[in-house]
Every structure is written in C-alpha cells, then in structure tokens.
Amino acid sequence: MIVMFGIFLLTLLVITAIAIVRTDNLFVAVMLMGIASLLIAANFFLLDAADVALTEAAVGAGISTVLFLGALALTSERERAKSWNRLLSFIVVAAAALILIYATFDKPRFGDPEAPVQVHVAPWYLEKTPEYIDIPNVVTAVLGSFRGYDTLGEVFVVFTAGIGVLFLLGGGKAGGAVPEEEIDEGLRHHLIPRVVGRVLIPFILLFGLYVQFHGEYGPGGGFQAGAIIAAAIILFALLEGENRALSVLPERVLLGLMACGPLLYGAVGLAGIIFGGNFLDYSVLSSNPVKGQQLGILLIEAGVGISVTGVLLGIFHAFAARDS
Amino acid sequence: MELLGIYNYWVFAVLLMTGFYAVVAKRNLVKKLLGLSLFQSAVFLLYITMGKVEGGTAPIFPEAGAAVFSNPLPQVLILTAIVVGISTTALGLGIVVRVKEEYGSIEEHKIQEIDER
Amino acid sequence: MSALLDTLSWVLLTLGGLSVLIGGIGALRMPDLYTRMHAASVTDSLGAILVLGGIMLQAGWSLATIKLFAILLFLLLTSPTSSYALASAALLAGQRPFADASQDGEGPE
Question: Is A125's CB within 8 Å of B72's CB?
C-alpha cells in the first residue's frame, strides 16, 4: 500500500516538473512549483523524514512561492523566447539521465539496514543522544548540538542572503521616490479575506511558536517556526497593505531581528568559552551537563527562528516596496 | 519495497535532468531559477531516499521502548540544504529584478544584445 | 465495536475519495473558470470533512483527534476564502462567466 502511494506521488511529481519546464506562462510555472514542493514534502514524510517534510512544506511551498510571485510582479509574466539549441540540450540531458539510471542499479538495496550509510556514524548518534542530550528528537539533537557548527554557518548564510537582497532592492521605488498612500491598499476593500485573516493570524502565530518550542519533542525547530511566523506576517501585509504592515513591524525592527538571530547563536557559543568549555560546548552552561545541552539547544533554536523570521520578512518587504 | 527504491532513484535522475534542462536551454532568467530549484529538490530526494531503513520510523524516540529508526544524518544535512537553497533563490530573484530594471528585459539573448552595443 | 468503527471509517474514506474524484473530473470538464472552481470546491469541503472524519474515527479518543479536528476547522475556513479571492480577482481582471457569452460575444477562456 505504501509502495503504491509512493509511486503515485513520484509520478505526479515528474508530470508536474515536466509541465513547469514546458509552460511559457511564468505564473503557471510558479504555481506548479508550489504543487511540486508539496508533493516532495509528502514523499519525504513517506520516507520517515518528518522534520524535512515540515521544512519543505513551510519553506518550499509557502515562502518560495511568495518570493517568486513578488519577483514576477516586478518583471514580466510571460516567457517570450523559444529555447536555445533544443536538440543538443535534449541529447545531452537524456544521455546524462540514462547514465544516472544505469548507476542506480549499483546502489545498495532500498532500506537495507546493513547499507554502508547506516552503519557508520548514525548508530553512534542514535545511541549517544539519550545519554548526552536526552531529548526525543534525534534530528534536533544532531542539528543543534552534535553538528551545531554547521547550523551556525547556515544561520550566517541566511543572514547574508538577507543583507544581499536589501543591498540590491532596499532602495524603495526605483529612482528613490516615496510611494503615496493608496486608497485600496492590499485587499482592504475585500471584506471576507480580511475578516478570515484577522481570525486566523493569531492562531498561525501561535502554531509557529508551538513548532519553535516543540522542536525537541517532535518535528519542528527554528527554521520551520521562522517560516510559519513570517508567513503569518506576510498574510497580514497582503491583507492590510504594505504601509500598515510596516507600521506594525518597522524596518529597523526587521533589521534588528536579522542581526539578533546570529548574534544570539554566537553569544551562546562564546558563553561556552567563558564558562570554561569549548566554543558551542553547551555542557558547561549549567551545573548538570545534560540540562546544559538542553538549554543550549533551546537558545540556539530561538536564535535560528528569530533570524529566519527577520530575513524572510525583510526580503518580502524589499520586493513589495519596489515599485516598477 | 525494492520497486519503490528503484523508482525513487529513477525519479531523482529524471527530475535532476529536467531542472538542468531548464537551466541550460531556457532563455528566461526566472525559468532558469525555477529549474535550479527543481535540481536542488531532486538532490534532496536522493539523500532522504538513501537514509530510509526498512521497517523504521522517523528518528524520534517514543515514550516507551526502542524501535528501528531511519538514519537521522541525511535529514540534518537536507534541512540545512533546503534553507540555503531558498536563500540563494531569494538572492537570485533580487538580481533578476535589478537586471530587468537596468536592461528592460529578462530574456538572456536580449540582455546580451544590449550589452554588446 | 471496533469492527463497527473500522467499517464506518472505511465508508467515510471511500466516500471522501469519491468526492475528490468527482471534484477533479469536474475541474477538468467544466467550461470556464467559475464553474471549474465550483466543482473543485467539492474537494475542499465535502472531501476534507469525509476523509478527515474517517481518519479521526481511526485515531479514537486521543490528542491526534483534536489535532485533526483543528486541521479540519482550518481547512474549512481558508479554502472558501481563497476560492472567493480567486473568483474576485478573476472578475476584476475581466474574465466574464460562461453565461455572459451570448451577450458579450466573448467565449469562455
């Protein structure tokens, strides 16, 4: 039954991907990309990757679609030219696909517990997490503590993308003029989305906070929570208009959020040095090493969530404020 | 189960090459970015497929007793990769918007024509 | 008792699957945007209630049932709103309904 379900989802995914490449209306392509992200998220869940499925759904199907639509509103929505040198590209691509398919026959059997990837480091992590960190979600334990240095790098990548987009698009109207107050900004003149949105936004924020703090006990964590909270505030900006959203969360607050996330993460790392351990060693943060690890993971996940929220909102406002 | 594994790898190959075709053969810059996004999703699919253990569940310790878990390490790597992917896509879209403002078009051949003048 | 619950949830899930299928066929076969949205809304409302109801019966009295009920509530609030926003945007963009074709001279898009 699972096999049929998996094959069905993957077939739909291939059809959607081919449709994305072949359509020449870019809005249709972006919507299909959202559908493809959701199908991939469902497939991840089938392959026992719950955290990854949540992240792909929140970030890929949610935020990515909004960013692409924002960019499309500032550029054209139709692809005007035919492809370049189609026959040669197709031959190269088909040959590479056949080589890859030939290579897949040499892979270990799907799900084999004795495959090389399952017997190296993974059993050590699964065994030592209850001993060193004692939280149920092993993915959060590895992400936050065992591989915490990689996650620090990732937070800095998100921060860099945020300031990069602000450098490129942060000037407001192209030409620097100040936009005027519009009468029907956002969806203000539509009653139904506004009412439903006002009912839902508090619950979406609550759910975002739930995902943030339950990252240690179930699927969740900073990245998913940041994307969900950013989605709630983007919904508010779409419904009530850009100017009201900026008066609720002004630009300098967003810049502050963008900077405070990595700052918090780095501060926890330095606190490890100050209390006598290594950089990003959480065991010394508290008298009991296990409690110290849990406290450290809680703090850095908060830093990650703050950073992702600030960056995604900053990027959205940079696109929305740019008038063409 | 064997069939699902082989099918997962084949879909990975097809998805990878579809995204790559969009990057190489299409001239519209936004289409290229969409193809890049598809390419990244295919790689995520490969890693997560390799981490699955037969009869396993998500690597979250239940209340009672031990169980067989799927490999948590590819999931950690892909979690990072998804977020990095969206960051680079956002930066790429910012560049596309600025290119449109400066050159007036996001079709690759028209931009090259304007550049050569 | 458990056999009765199982049968009931089977019936609900099958009916839910059927209504999703009907919605899908309608979305393909209907002549224009508004009628297609009307057909697809069967999926959002009836399909969601039946499928989630069937799963809730399987979950019994547990935390999972409350979470599923919250998901159902969220779906029932947001799907009609997004259909409304889509139809309103289409109307503002100038897409006329099929029934106007005889007066306007424009065919369905």
Answer: yes
